């Protein structure tokens, strides 16, 4: 066991505070990672404040982890000391179900994946995330960060990147396809960059035009305000794919009207409140509504390699650990462009 410093929420809705946690000894197939940077995801706030379900406390959030390998177990073949690596939303799964064997570990049906934090490991112990100095992870749930990506801008890709890349790939975003991204926040800004890099024609749908200049610089071809009713009239029947990154309930019907025949609206933001869908609004042109959850380990590596090749990284604001609580409030106020990343040397 190794004692490391971390920032944890001692109870639901309580401010995060500096503490220490125990990391397991490095096992045969484990790697010990010195965490350099950890992104702040909106889901960290949902979970630290019991927004989705009752959490396990004390809770150390963080599943956007970038660092350097400092020790490997005797059976490790994939990584060596000094390698630049990342850890995303999960650190294990059953490895035996059909989904795990298909590289869809995020949809593990053998008890579900072991989440990087606010979860329970196979040893029965709670998992602690990336707001900490070190983490021990099985080599099969670690990914390599290519040299073309700086660790700080790569960290958010371990959640925001794969969360948007996976549905864009699955629904074949690319040349000749029209993609709309709803919301230009932590998820949405990466989604715009990725959809543009994949060759799609990209439109941002945001509440206002306040971030229009940013959206166009990030790769959007068009930018519309959803607060303007004319937007839904002008864009009716336009999109092959709508990627909804907003974690608040929406009135879905107007958005469904923007889909072409056989178009899909895919939701990657997860509101705390139930949402209502009126089926009649989907019937007209064989439209569909779906969702997508992160991606498997192989697809996450594919995403990182793609980002390195195309120069895609998150737009970040680097903060010290003592600024985490203020950062949470700023995320809730949409006062970040576009992802907070913790310099874990400050923990």
TrEMBL record:
<keyword id="KW-0560">Oxidoreductase</keyword>
<dbReference type="InterPro" id="IPR013154">
    <property type="entry name" value="ADH-like_N"/>
</dbReference>
<protein>
    <recommendedName>
        <fullName>alcohol dehydrogenase (NADP(+))</fullName>
        <ecNumber>1.1.1.2</ecNumber>
    </recommendedName>
</protein>
<dbReference type="InterPro" id="IPR036291">
    <property type="entry name" value="NAD(P)-bd_dom_sf"/>
</dbReference>
<dbReference type="InterPro" id="IPR047109">
    <property type="entry name" value="CAD-like"/>
</dbReference>
<keyword id="KW-0862">Zinc</keyword>
<dbReference type="InterPro" id="IPR002328">
    <property type="entry name" value="ADH_Zn_CS"/>
</dbReference>
<dbReference type="InterPro" id="IPR011032">
    <property type="entry name" value="GroES-like_sf"/>
</dbReference>
<dbReference type="GO" id="GO:0008106">
    <property type="term" value="F:alcohol dehydrogenase (NADP+) activity"/>
</dbReference>
<dbReference type="GO" id="GO:0008270">
    <property type="term" value="F:zinc ion binding"/>
</dbReference>
<feature type="domain" description="Enoyl reductase (ER)">
    <location>
        <begin position="14"/>
        <end position="342"/>
    </location>
</feature>
<keyword id="KW-0479">Metal-binding</keyword>
<dbReference type="Pfam" id="PF08240">
    <property type="entry name" value="ADH_N"/>
</dbReference>
<dbReference type="InterPro" id="IPR013149">
    <property type="entry name" value="ADH-like_C"/>
</dbReference>
<dbReference type="Pfam" id="PF00107">
    <property type="entry name" value="ADH_zinc_N"/>
</dbReference>
<comment type="similarity">
    <text>Belongs to the zinc-containing alcohol dehydrogenase family.</text>
</comment>
<dbReference type="InterPro" id="IPR020843">
    <property type="entry name" value="ER"/>
</dbReference>
